[in-house]
Design goal:
The chain has helices spanning 29-36, 73-86, 104-111, 128-133, 150-161, 172-175, 209-227, 229-238, and strands spanning 10-16, 40-46, 59-60, 70-71, 91-101, 115-120, 137-140, 194-195, 198-199. It is of the alpha/beta class. It has 2 domains: 10-161, Alpha/beta knot (3-Layer(aba) Sandwich); 176-238, Trp Operon Repressor, Chain A. Strand 1 (10-16), helix 1 and strand 2 form a beta-alpha-beta unit. Helix 3 crosses helix 5 (150-161) and helix 7 (209-227) crosses helix 8 (229-238). The longest helix has 19 residues, at 209-227. The model has no long low-confidence stretch (mean pLDDT 95). Bound molecules: S-adenosylmethionine. Residues 95-98, 120-122, 124-125, 140-142, 144-149, 152 line the site of S-adenosylmethionine.
């Protein structure tokens, strides 16, 4: 991934049973270019490399019985400790459906960190003692359950990396995006002027920037009220 990441401002270390999944989609487009430019770095550690037996076992049956397998605390802790050698100041995040919900505000908060250690779980997840002993912060990307944390790590890192300085070309293109000021974004249009009988709203073609701004603001408000009354309530609460 990044050859020499000692100078990189933002370092991510992903702990996973499937290091081959990285950088995956993060290696493409905006995040991929930023990775190549050294604006951020990505390392992976495989839990299996820190297993304590010759079979490289990382999981075991749940104490108290029940279905599935649990990731062993000792193996996870060894992997975390190795990750902290790469990223000693890392915020330690365990991707977990039980965690604090990830959102744009949280992405901004994490973009200020120099380093992140991201633990991708598998099976039934981590033995609770690994979470406790290594003071992991649990973060969820939504109220649904996936088979592993790797895709959650993609989502989190994609949202964070695009906020790092120099990653997205024109910083102003981030200003009006959805969730800025709790508003969803206004609709976008481009050529052709007419598509299957549908026209671009005329205000966008008239060159009056004050009117265009007003139209966009009104559209953003209407769409937020309709689709996300929870966000709209936050705006009204702040007024
Ligand atoms: C099958 S899940 C474990 C679910 C767990 N038994 C529960 O009910 O909360 C396996 C792993 O996928 C990841 N994962 C699944 N859904 C997630 C979500 N919504 N957000 C973040 N990580 C998730 C976590 O790393 C988790 O340890």
């Amino acid at each position: 991934m990044a050859d020499d990441n000692s100078q990189t401002r933002f370092k991510a270390v992903c702990l996973t049973l499937f290091p081959e999944l990285f950088p995956g989609p993060l290696g493409c487009s905006v995040t991929g270019n930023a990775l190549k430019q050294g604006l951020w770095s990505l390392d992976t550690l495989n839990y299996r490399d820190f297993a304590l037996d010759k079979h490289r076992t990382v999981d075991d049956t749940p104490a108290g019985g029940g279905p599935g397998m649990v990731m062993r605390a000792d193996v996870a802790a060894q992997t975390i400790d190795a990750g902290l050698k790469i990223a000693p100041n890392a915020r330690r995040i365990y991707l977990s459906p039980r965690g604090r919900m990830f959102d744009q505000e949280f992405a901004k908060e994490l973009a200020l960190e120099p380093e992140l250690l991201l633990l991708c779980g598998r099976f039934e997840g981590l033995d609770e003692r690994a979470i406790e002993a290594r003071q992991l912060e649990e973060v969820s990307i939504g109220d649904f359950v996936m088979t592993g944390g790797e895709m959650a790590a993609y989502c989190l890192l994609d949202a964070v990396v695009r906020l790092l300085p120099g990653v997205v070309g024109a910083a102003s293109s981030l200003d009006n995006e959805s969730f800025e000021a709790n508003l969803l974004e206004h609709p976008h249009y481009t050529r052709p002027r007419e598509f299957e009988g549908l026209e671009i709203p005329s205000v966008l073609l008239e060159g009056n920037h004050k009117k265009i701004d007003e139209w966009r603001q009104a559209e953003a408000e209407a769409i937020t009220k309709l689709r996300r009354p929870d966000l709209w309530q936050k705006i009204e609460g702040n007024e």
